[in-house]
Design brief:
globular, 20% helix, 107 residues, Hypothetical Protein Aq_1857, Chain: A, 2 helices, six-stranded mixed β-sheet, three-stranded mixed β-sheet, alpha+beta
């Protein structure tokens, strides 16, 4: 499934707390587009759909739809902050190619 690094879990839990959601999920999905063909999407959601897979890592509840799971299985969500930080990053072992910014990939 998808795992979350310690730094990403801290940042996500902080964002969840700031958002005020009572039972929030982090939704991770793949959409067509980007310079490498597929792009990552990260958002908050309050409802689990019947076709979603639910995973929990380090206190973060992650929803992934079945189609996206095929591309994201084994991916780790990382967070890099600071002056040169890039924010959230996807370390995806299924990606054969990624763009320079790391927001899109190909398999």
């Amino acid at each position: 499934m998808i795992t979350v690094s310690e730094t990403a879990a801290i940042k996500l839990n902080s964002l969840i707390e700031e958002s005020g959601f009572q039972t929030p999920f982090v939704r991770v999905s793949v959409k067509g587009g980007g310079c490498s063909g597929l792009s990552y999407d990260l958002s908050f959601d309050t409802e689990q759909q019947p076709s979603d897979t639910l995973a929990e890592d380090k206190g973060v509840k992650i929803l992934v739809d079945m189609k996206s799971l095929l591309y994201l299985y084994g991916t780790e969500l990382e967070f890099s902050g600071g002056l040169n930080g890039k924010g959230f990053q996807f370390i995806n072992p299924n990606a054969s190619r990624t763009c320079g910014c790391g927001e899109s990939f190909a398999v």
